[in-house]
Amino acid sequence: MRSLDTTCCIVGGGPAGMMLGYLLARAGVDIVVLEKHADFFRDFRGDTIHPSTLENFHELGLLDEFLKLPHQELTHIEAQIGDETFPAADFTHLPTRCKFVAFMPQWDFLDFVAEQARKRKTFRLLMETEGLDLLRDGERVTGVRARGPDGEVEIKAPLTVAADGRHSTIRAASGLQVMDFGAPMDVLWLRLSKRPGEKSESFGRAIPGRLIILIDRGDYWQCAFVIAKGTFDEMRKRDIGELHAELARAIPGLSDRIGEIKSWDDAKLLTVAVDRLKQWHLPGLLCIGDAAHAMSPVGGIGINLAIQDAVATANILASSLRKGRLRDQDLAAVQKRRERPARVTQDVQLFIQRRLIRAILKAKRRVPVPFPLKVLRAIPYLRRFPARFVGLGVQPEHVRSRDDRATLRR
Question: How far apart are the two ends of the chain, measured CA to CA in Å?
């Protein structure tokens, strides 16, 4: 079995893992990132880049280059209950350079971060390499056993970071306790073509028994069709025409193109989970992003929280890792910094799921209009508050880790 040595091994090349890998390599820490796939191309991943993340790119001096990539910009959110429309969030007043949420394919985002990271001599990205299990010396984690294109490899490191998502193999191997809060829903991701001149803002529409979110992706609509938890297998047994009928009822304005969904294979299931680790770390191991706290898709906040975890982790750990003085209390400091934002965000998501989404899915005749939406329509100033929650999060992080120019490749 091959063996590699590094200072920090990050398992998972998603937003949290790639951002942390770049920031630590930029600070002069030797990094290995493992990504189990051959590329980053996966459809219907979290494609929202929030103002807080765009602010981080500004702090890194990368914003102008990043925004050259194809993207759409969302400045307002609206909700449609029955035939009534309610403005819900206004991002144009945020105290950031970018007063919008950017929609960009996640593979473009990850390719961009990987490109920046590869400019650093202390960064290695191993594609098609999957973390399988933890290496241990007594109670201390000393690295990862992984499988790559050339067979198994042991990667030894003073710190291993689990950033491999809500179904984290490394989290499962750690034995850390998971608190599961449940969810009343799952989501079907669908794609419908967008015609010239159609309304460009993204919005949600609720009718009795159904909720659908439409996201403007330039030349197509990305549709999140919310269904009751665990009902997809039963739905798949029916003719696809029944889904067409449901969609025509939920989004009559797009009924002329619902036939573009040819079969159930065109519907991608997102199984919604909301959970959080009681403790995010062991000696030599830290979990961040969805591996530490799986988020609901409500608000599209999960990717934002994961990236903010990465920024905070680099701020707290970069110096200790570079000097070879990592302590267990440093890992505890990451959890102390990021646990409250995760907890508060999940509490808000759970409230919305239980009080609003569950009521919509159970409604038979009429969806009651939530009182907060009435207030937001009546008082435009208040729309800044949900925009701040979605766009910046509970505790936005700023890049404090150093830029060690000596790590740049010549």
Answer: 33
